[in-house]
Amino acid sequence: MSMLTKINHFNGLWHQADRIRGSGCSDLDVMNRALSDFKPKYPSGFQHIEAWEVVRKHDKWAPVPLLGEDSGSSGQKRKSSDSDNYNTGTPGTESPIDIPDINVDPSPTRQKRKEKRPATSSNDSQEALTEKISQYTLMKEEKKARAIELTSIRKKREEDTIALVAEQREAVKQLMYDRDLKTFTEPHDHAPPEMLPFILTRKRDIAKKYN
Predict the structure, then answer these.
(1) For the chain, N or C: smaller number of CB within 10 Å?
(2) What is d(CA 131, CA 123) in angstroms, rounded to the nearest whole number?
(3) Which among 16, 4, 127 has a CA at the least distance from the CA of 64?
């Protein structure tokens, strides 16, 4: 499944959760709701939040108004406008009639044409979206490569530390061996009588230690 397909699916879920958000519901609550609704179809979850944040502001990903949303808001405007322009009369009382001024030109005035904004072609829009996706993919690959590099450096340091500790252990072990060997081979014929039992016991322990 392509990343673009997953982003499109999540975008729809986010707008759906945003439409039904209740009072006091934050953007974080909307995000959590969209992520929860995403998992039934994609159990691994949505892994492209950064890419979605980049493309969500694009016209293609803007929310599509539901049927009745625009008409409802415009209906309120019309209701408010009609109530301002409509005067209810009391029973038996006629509403006043406006008499036109003969000095005013009755012909309707032409409204100035609004300048049309240059339309963006679908090809340009698609190319811009593709470019953003490519930039995000490249950024993610660079981040991944950097993480691999840091992991490799960390592993090399750990290996060097282990090797150094092992080398130090061998050095200490060799030092103790040399000292024991010197003690074991040193003659004890001229040792004081009171020290002789301790010297012999020490030599027996060294012989037993190294078999």
Answers:
(1) C
(2) 12
(3) 16
Evaluated on CA atoms 43, 45, 47, 52, the torsion sign reads positive
Furthest C-alpha separation in the chain: 147
Q: pLDDT by residue for the chain (211 residues), tens digit each?
A: 578 889 889 999 999 999 888 888 898 999 999 999 999 999 889 889 888 888 887 777 777 665 555 544 433 433 443 434 434 444 444 444 454 454 555 555 555 555 655 555 666 777 777 887 888 888 888 989 989 999 999 999 999 999 999 989 999 989 988 989 888 888 888 888 888 898 889 989 999 888 7
DSSP string, the chain: --HHHHHHHHHHHHHHHHHT--TT--HHHHHHHHHHHHTTT-TT----HHHHHHHTTSGGGSPPPPTTHHHHHHHHHHHHHHHHH--PPPTT-PPP-PPPPTTS--SPPPPPPPPPPPPPPHHHHHHHHHHHHHHHHHHHHHHHHHHHHHHHHHHHHHHHHHHHHHHHHHHHHHHHHHHHHHHHHS--TTS-TTTHHHHHHHHHHHHHHT-
